Amino acid sequence: MLRSVEISAELTGPLHGEGFHNLHWDKRLELSLDCFICGRGRRTTSIQYGLEHALCSGDDEYPEHPTAARVAAFDVTKERERMALRAVVDYWWAPFRDAKRDQAATALSQTPWIRLHLGYYCPQARQSGAFSIQTNMVRPRRDTCGHCDHLLATSKDAPTIRLLT
Fold first, then answer.
1. Averaged in consecutive runs of 10 residues, what is the pLDDT profile of the chain (165 residues)?
2. What whole-number distance in Å separates Cα of residue 50 and Cα of residue 7?
3. How many other C-beta atoms can be found within 10 angstroms of the C-beta atom of residue 83?
4. At a CB cut-off of 8 Å and minimum separation 6, what does 138 contact?
5. I need a labelling partner for 106 at 20 to 30 A (CA). Which of 15, 56, 112, 133 fits?
6. How far apart are CA 89 and CA 3, in angstroms?
7. Could you tell me the pTM of the whole model?
């Protein structure tokens, strides 16, 4: 059956003006999902906007493999000192039992986890850079440019994941 989750995140900071680094959300993410293809729960699934399938991380017995998931929506809101993301991920899910953990699969992993990627361009160093935020980081989290130490953004709250269908 087709399932959908909504992912929301917000960053604050000096996003415009002096030291502008053109901070932006990358259109890729990792999400923990139960994978009916390999029959394992809580798999890290890499998803990129525009691709028709995702990649399940697999494990020692079943290597990385394509799985049925995609980014259906990727909406960004930018304000003077706030940048928000709302993404919807669609994926196919079917009931199964994880043989290794002897647990039933769930439509949204029992411990949902998400990693979101961001990119930027340092005008001083004339180089690009990247960082990520994820649900299991200590907050508040301040990220700075890897080239000039300029404050890029602060993550006050963890990204949220909500099962829609």
1. 95 83 96 90 94 91 91 94 96 88 82 93 96 96 95 96 90
2. 17
3. 20
4. none
5. 133
6. 8
7. 0.92
Structure tokens at 63: 């290597």
Euclidean distance between CA atoms 50 and 59, whole angstroms: 26
User: Which pLDDT score is estimated for 145?
Assistant: 95
Radius of gyration, alpha carbons of the chain: 17
Q: What is the pLDDT of residue 100?
A: 82
The amino acid occupying position 87 is A
Tokens of 126: 């004339």
- Burial class from Cβ neighbours inside 10 Å (0-12, 13-18, 19+) for residue 60 reads exposed
pLDDT of residue 141: 96
Q: Which of 8, 3, 5 is nearest to 83 (CA)?
A: 8
Distance from C-alpha of 85 to C-alpha of 43, rounded to nearest angstrom: 23
Look-up of token digits 């989290």: 141
